[in-house]
Design a protein that fits this description.
The structure is a homodimer of 443-residue chains.
Chain A: H1 22-35, E1 49-53, E2 56-59, E3 64-67, H2 80-92, H3 102-112, E4 121-125, H4 128-143, E5 147-151, H5 160-163, E6 179-182, H6 191-211, E7 216-221, H7 239-247, E8 251-255, E9 280-283, E10 294-298, H8 300-309, H9 320-335, H10 338-359, E11 363-368, E12 373-379, E13 382-386, H11 388-400, E14 403-404, E15 406-408, E16 414-417, H12 425-442
Chain lengths: 443, 443
């Protein structure tokens, strides 16, 4: 399935509807009647989820599923502190940023305090896609250039402009003529080769954009290369490429929708693992633990250039309820020590998969940073060949054992393990044991 | 200020900070430090709003302001039924559309039931901007064409693609080369001339797009022409232009972000006032009474074309809490008879302004549909000349009397009156009396 769309990864095939129970089958049919098959649904046997708590999702028969996939509920599903903040604020006031509000301004100050000094201004959006889209507008105004470099299977959003820089949509959605892609690092490359190889690819893309008359405006990178299959090491490997982009007149836009808010266990933001300070940072998904909110954080002068040309107003962006939820998320990340926990449990999980790898030739590589772990499944007789079918069997096998993960990477053979941050060592052990048993049975 | 940006309409001038009380001044300064002056703030003396209820906003000194402006809280600020739905659902589950969910599917079915039959499919977005952006993607896939026609001061959103079809941003943000604008109707034109004149303008734009090699893909219209200054009559005047667009191979995209959810008092959707059935409908702002949610509703075959090429997943789009809030909004619109009320109170308001007009030469025209009313302020000695300064004085004067409205139209001289739908006849009378007194004093 190389070259396929990330929308197809781990998707339900409607031909499998006969295997469902009556409640599930009825919902699948009603869903198809309203969404027309355009919206992907997870798993061979889709889940009907009715409630959730912490790292657990529950279906209509009160079966409980361990959530090792969802990063939006970063502090855990329905965290009582966040739920209380939402309920209280929704009953008091929910409005926009054209009035003054301590809730909104106070949250903006707290958020900005988590960034290194030059990153001193914020614009609230409602989603990460809107953030990427706005970052492209800021970058075009600042540099006067439209050229963009992204990684080869990057996902940056679903608006027209974000889709133009999202190769993960596959061949059905064209990349912009102003966009070039660079390969993610090769699994198993020597650490000292990773940064130089990535920088060479970026240099070639810069030269190519210049030859085509659309010089580089922005190098847009998810600092964990999530959609490409998660390439996080060695820390710092992105720095040389970023320096080259800047030398060529481009900005470095960090897409922190995936690594942000402590996921990597190495601080709040993924870019710090690389010793970098971006020109523009985009964040989204986990920011409000499910309440829609995103943001663009940038330098004062980049925003000033934009403000001199136009302004920014986003009806739901920075609404009072979303800001109250987002402030509660910061409370919990700090109060429950979730970044340290992500570091500890993530290391345990990675070590566990590395141990499994020793006895299972179908595990080609294990990568990870904090509570984002990727495991390559490969053909037993050819470790360079992805085993997409095995990955699909495994995630559906785990789903039958009531553990939820997904896949990533261009071939769909990379296990994507990205739980809410309260995921514990015991939760990790449950996932490791089930994975080990299923792979031993399949191998 | 003709040609200025809609972002500048009714905006606070930071030079006025000295006139503020210490609480307001401190917030204005802290806000400037985080947003860098890029995000507009309303009124010469900005409001610090801390709570709200129904049609009332309250500041930090518990002063109460009559809200005749905000359309997002369509069923009233902090409506208890919606607040309860948010609180209950936020405590139970907030997740995405890749699992089955009765809450999400059930709401989709209820929403679709409000549309005429060919409009049978929905995609949930998080915002109206994302909806417009997605409508452009659907339309390009369906027609294979990128040409777009919009009205001359239209606002359709802030993403790269939405901004390209948003002349209301002014000269700082370029329209796309594939975009043509058509003039809104002329205030005071004979009713029988309005439709033909608009259709002629659209025909010319179609021809121009064809000559430039970017034939029409979509005619995108807000059926009340909100940003252009609100042109609603005679009902049906858009039909001829829409027929021409279709004859030329384009789709009709109805931007219902403003008129939708009962505002016009003539049913749920603005396009029905014109006897039209769109190919694609976009909605947003009022849909969740402040909980971020938007949608695109379209024909099964238009969505099937898109699904054959790619799919659609939007992390927060159709999240469980937003759908629960949106379902509660439908409950209240139906249960409290808000569409009929909008019709009745809107007619009262329009009649009241028409009465004021008789004695006040500064009122050039009064227009409206339901609880969306526009009043042109003009020079006493030249009814064709907008009086932008008077409009600005008036809305700031009303703010001092604790009544909130804004302005619209390319010259910023059109009073924009667009309250939450529970706005009563007594609320209307309070606004009419204050406006009459202020204009009599100014005139």
């Amino acid at each position: 399935m190389s070259g396929a769309s990330m929308l197809a990864l781990n998707a339900f095939d409607p031909d499998g509807a006969a295997a469902l129970d009556p409640v599930e089958r009825a919902l699948v049919e009603r869903r198809a009647a309203v969404f027309g098959g355009a919206v992907p649904l997870f798993y061979d046997r889709p889940l009907n989820i009715v409630r959730a708590e912490g790292v657990w999702l529950y279906d209509h028969e009160n079966r409980r599923y361990l959530d090792a996939y969802n990063n939006v509920p970063v502090v855990g599903h329905c965290h009582p502190h966040v739920v209380q903040a939402i309920a209280t604020q929704a009953a008091r006031l929910n409005t926009h940023t054209r009035y003054l509000s301590e809730v909104v301004i106070g949250y903006a100050e707290r958020l900005l305090a988590t960034f290194p000094a030059p990153l001193a201004r914020v614009l609230f959006t409602t989603t990460g896609t809107e953030g990427i889209d706005l970052a492209l507008r800021l970058s075009r105004v600042r540099t006067g250039r439209s050229g963009v470099i992204v990684t080869r299977f990057a996902y940056h959003g679903h608006s027209v402009a974000a889709a133009e820089i999202t190769p993960a949509f596959g061949s059905g959605v064209g990349l912009g003529a102003h966009v070039r892609t660079v390969a993610a690092p090769v699994a198993g490359a020597r650490p000292e080769d990773v940064g130089p190889a990535f920088a060479r690819a970026v240099a070639q893309a810069i030269a190519d954009l210049e030859r085509q008359g659309t010089p580089l405006g922005a190098l847009v990178l998810d600092s964990v290369l999530s959609s490409d299959g998660l390439f996080v090491d060695p820390p710092g490997y992105l720095a040389e490429a970023v320096a080259q982009a800047r030398a060529a007149g481009g900005l470095f836009v960090a897409d922190e929708v995936q690594p942000g808010f402590g996921r990597t266990g190495a601080g709040m933001w993924g870019f710090t693992r690389h010793g970098l300070v971006p020109d523009i940072v985009v964040m989204g998904k986990p920011m409000g633990n499910g309440m829609p909110i995103g943001a663009v954080v940038t330098h004062a002068d980049i925003l000033a250039d934009f403000a001199a040309r136009t302004g920014y107003f986003n009806t739901f962006g920075g609404n009072t309820v979303s800001c109250a939820a987002a402030a509660a998320v910061l409370d919990v990340i700090e109060g429950e020590g979730l970044i340290a926990s992500a570091q500890k449990v993530g290391a345990h999980l990675k070590a566990g998969f590395t141990q499994l790898q020793a006895g299972l030739p179908c595990i080609g590589a294990v990568r990870g940073a904090g509570l984002y772990v990727a495991v390559d499944l490969v053909q037993r007789d050819d470790p360079a060949a992805p085993d997409t079918a095995l990955a699909r069997r495994l995630i559906n096998g785990l789903r039958e054992r009531q553990i939820l993960i997904s896949t990533c990477g261009p071939a769909g053979n990379v296990l994507k393990i990205r739980p809410p941050l309260p995921f514990s060592t015991a939760n990790a052990d449950q996932l490791l044991q089930a994975t080990g048993e299923l792979l031993a049975g399949s191998a």
